[in-house]
Amino acid sequence: MAPFLSLLIYTYLVLRCSSLTAPVDPSKSQPMGSSLGQNSSSEGVPLVDVPMALGVFSVDYHHVQAPFEIVLWIMLASLAKLGFHWSGRIPAVVPESCLLIMVGLLVGGVIYGVRHSAPPTLSADAFFLFLLPPIVLDAGYFLPGRLFFENLGTILWYALLGTLWNVLGIGLSLYGVCLLCPSSLGDVSLLHCLLFGSLIAAVDPVAVLSVFQEMHVNEQLHILVFGESLLNDAVTVVLYQLFESFLRLPSVSGLDVLLGGCRVLVVGFGGLFVGLFFGLVAALTSRFTPRVPVIAPLFVFLYSYLSYLTSEMLHLSGITAIVTCAVTMKQYVEANVSERSNSSIQYFLKMWSSVSETLIFIFLGVSTIQDVHMWSWLFVCATLLLCLIWRGSGVLLLTAVVNKVRRNKVTFRDQFIIAYGGLRGAICFSLVFLIDDFPKKRLFITTTIIVILFTVFVQGMTIKPLVDLLDVKRKKRALPTVSEEIHSRLIDHLLAGIEDVVGYWGQHYWKDKFEQFNRKFLRRFLIREEQQNRSSILRVYQELERREQGADRETVHPLLPEEMDSIRRILSRNLLQFNSRRPTYSRHTLHHDRALQRHSSLGERDTQFVFLCAVCAIGPRSISQDSSIPEEQTAPQHGPKKHLSFDIENEKNN
Amino acid sequence: MGSNKSTLQHIPNAEELMEETGFSAAHIQRLYDRFQLLDRDQMGGLRNEDFEAIPELVTNPIKDRIIGAFLSPGKDMVDFPSFVRVLAHFQPTNSKRSKTSSQEQYNSPTRKLQFVFQLYDQDRDGKISKTEMLQVLQEMLRMEETDEQLQSVMEKAFQEADLDQDDAISFDEFKKSLEKLDISEKMSIGFLC
């Protein structure tokens, strides 16, 4: 707490200093840059006379103002984050995003009190160009590829159609609301409402990520919501620009609408191709880095950022570009670059995205305190209600259709989480500031802020208890017996194995084709010579090694086995310990495994159960006796035990 | 997906397999393609090495038991009909066939349970002994529990399931201990229907 308080005090002092060191008129500048010059701010600070002799000590804030303030903000954000996690219990109840917004509100209030003017707001440029890319890059780099592509159809279904449904629904019904009350809302036209709908309907990846991290959801659900929030950027961007340009046009014809539809495709696929291009170039570049391993991580960041900037320049979907870039280059870069560089890449990505996210939420809080508010009960409440209604109905309808085609059905619990977990965040906020000025713009800004705050606070905080409530209601039977648990787990492993034997149907054909193409051309071209011979089995061993090391670090303390009755307590206690250390899915897990996926995709089991499966799927130790990974291609070494059952069977029958 | 019975002529005994297992022609075709893909040396059968070459399967803790389940006793190669028959166990139970009596269908609950039972009962004596259960537990849970804990877990499981106290779990006792579990739903792979 002490560093936090001292930082606040320091910030306050600096702010007072800065208000005293208002920009000095060049015509009146003193030779030594003495600080107490002409004060043109609205504060009534009296002029102070300074002797004209040589100043021994001076404060020249303006010289360092910009970087200084940036660093202070980042410092504030990071210390705030430290502070929250100091107390273990708070993050469990209140999501981090809420706490950060509250800190932002506090700081905004302090600044307002000190300066009596609006605090610095989050400029749309700063947000889109600096704060958003690291988060999206981090998300894209650690995207569970196979899961994502398996569910791609569903994700696109939700992202494209769902967003369209929401936008049109909210826009049209808001217009209806405005018509109902022409006195106060009469000058909000249909196009304005549609524009507003387009920016408020989109689910925000930043907010979703931060809330879902604390909520342990199964992977499939996570990837659905998260994938949707990433991909709906294409639709949002297009619709927003579309309606904005419609607003500027004298009239709108049917042709324009059709062109708008084409634009969606252009924006989406354009972003995709830009991302692909830069991803492949990055992979190629990483091939040549072994002599200078230190700058290898830099290329990853540079190329990704370039892809984002390029697509923003061309008015394509930047988020799609950067995600595609990350997904494309990941496997080649990981093969080409040294282990330490890999760690650096991952570490820096996590760090930057964490800082960005924290800053975004704090600024959201700070920017709420300003003079540009315009309140209208009807509009705000109607918007909130309509957002919920349209999202809920959209999810229900879409899921009903898509469940007919999916093999892992999206359960009702999942649908509720998808609908209720559609949080809005800073993207809406920045977009609303970019609207061309019109009389009711301030109303829009206020409403957007309220919607964001509502979704983040109310929905963010209540989603976990509501989900637990839903789960509790569906737990019909008593705790399973030990036998049942054992057999269940065995069956899960069995099913995972059989699925692997059978391969994936549906995507199997394309996946196979892609793998062939990958092996024959891409890998040969993009990966260094020595690394190419690493078969997939070797990669699997590396994976196992990493898991084993991970499991070692988190070994459960061996408990004394109590009597027979408390076997269950032992097992569940182990599970709880494991539970608190590793959530089912978070952005920080670097690998997922089959039994876990199989288990969770059925959607019905206890979360604790799932974790135990995760541990079980970490293969037995006996695969490689020594921890060094053989460089050349070797056949898998099996410990003697693993073959026991098989050999016995063979022996008995020979 | 477009393939009808006439295109299955290059697959031996395709029609009998379809009758026996309840797979559609499209499924048989896909299974055959997959079989060909796995059979790297084109010997007409899958060996242990072919299974080991499946990358995702390698990390499965009970991989050897699964491979053993495919291989019939005495052979070291799985031919296509055996492959299909094993996979037929994993069809959801409410598929549309009703030609033969439900007891003989591969995907009846009893057959599914028998399949799981045989995963435990590696020596095929019709009973799960304490050693066999302990082996399974060790394979699945080695990273997490010590051997003493696994021992006590196994003892507890036997206490619950072994009703006639003969230190071995017969198939009926096994079936009884799993009666609350909806085996036909749990042990089904959705895309096989």
From TrEMBL, chain A:
Record-annotated Sodium/hydrogen exchanger regulatory region domain positions: 552-593
Family annotation (Gene3D superfamilies): 6.10.140.1330, 6.10.250.1040, 6.10.250.2020
Membrane topology (UniProt): Multi-pass membrane protein
Domain Cation/H+ exchanger transmembrane: 75-467
Parts of the chain that traverse the membrane: 92-114, 126-143, 155-177, 189-211, 223-243, 263-285, 345-369, 375-403, 415-435, 447-467
Cited InterPro entries: Cation/H_exchanger_CPA1, Cation/H_exchanger_TM, NaH_exchanger, NHE_CaM-bd
Region (Disordered): 624-654
Signal peptide: 1-29
Segments of skewed composition (Basic and acidic residues): 644-654
Key words of the record: Antiport, Cell membrane, Ion transport, Membrane, Signal, Sodium, Sodium transport, Transmembrane, Transmembrane helix, Transport
Stated name of the protein: Sodium/hydrogen exchanger
